[in-house]
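Q: Convert this sequence to structure tokens.
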Amino acid sequence: MILEMKVPSPGESITEVEIAEWLVEDGDYVEKDQAIAEVDSDKATLELPAEASGTITLKAEEGDAVAVGQVVCLIDTEAKAPESSTYEGGDEGGNSNAEKDVAKDQKAEPNKENHDKAPNPAKETYASGVASPAAKKILAEKGMDAKTISGTGKDGRVTKDDAVKAVPSMGTPTGGNRSSSNTKMSMLRRKVAERLVEAKNTTAMLTTFNEVDMAPIFALRKEYKESFKAKHGVSLGFMSFFSLAVVRALQMYPAVNSMIDGKEMKSFDFVDISIAVSGPKGLMVPVIRNAENLTFRGIESEVKRLALRARDGQITVDEMTGGTFTITNGGVFGSMLSTPIINPPQSGILGMHNIIERPIAVDGQVVIHPMMYVALSYDHRIIDGKESVGFLVAVKEALENPVEILMNNDVKKALEL
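A:
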């Protein structure tokens, strides 16, 4: 029986995927549920498992864009498994994957000795590199040696025309590697690019900045970090403080937690925070659902779970769909200041940056404190300057007074210690 394997739907609104990589070769025997390919959608990379055991015939090439429901391979379910299956890595009695690779390399490099032979050098004569009197004068003005020029005159003589056309070196190093290569972008990378351009072209995006004194949070983490991790199994990071500060600010300024829907402004009575994380396939933005109902422990646990799934390529489309506001942390890469781009159709994104000790004035005295610049990019079509600045100030207030504003003056209760 020949089984037709079709591309399953990775999620709503996705009609096309791209064959990123075949994990098997045409004619291989595959086991049921064995991963046979990786497919890219515009949201994530997913593995395609074999629906049955048998010999596989590929019907699409790597890099092909295929529609959801399209047949990409055939599996002959009546074929018998070989004595040594490469799915388990092979054994001494059969051809291993390594042996296949060696055979492929040998096949791909026929007559290598012939290809490696250098072409015959150009024939030189007694006149090679000798300049005519007119050419000699021009080359002297340019500070060039006739021997560095390939002459077109009789027997290789350098003519006046050769000297005129010769371009003197301006000291640019030569002889190094100047090769280039083109690599096809994945569907996920192309979709990210499209969305970034769309955000720049379709929103009235502005960015406002502020700075946060991180000393109070540093003090809290220093005192409670170990006990928090011992009890909850996750670290007390900065993301929980920022997420809870954002939740409070969004509740104070609901326009920032809104988006344009046609000719209407759609507002939300919940807060789904998208967090930008770097995965093996590029930038991914999983969502923390109903962040307004989560504690410090809840947010840190969810951030860790989503980040691990993104890193391991296990994140699903549903986990990246939605979101009413985004937080991105360029500080982990060393960014001092940036203007983050809105994640459409959202209307706001908060950018965190690296923490650097800087001198600031406190009660008339110059002191050194750990400081962070924060940036809010917002869609000016529905968010006014007053709301955007007020939102960022509210975030700053909460971060600089976490015990009073975020913990209700009860640290141990807030951290569930």
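The CA atoms of residues 193 and 287 lie 20 Å apart.
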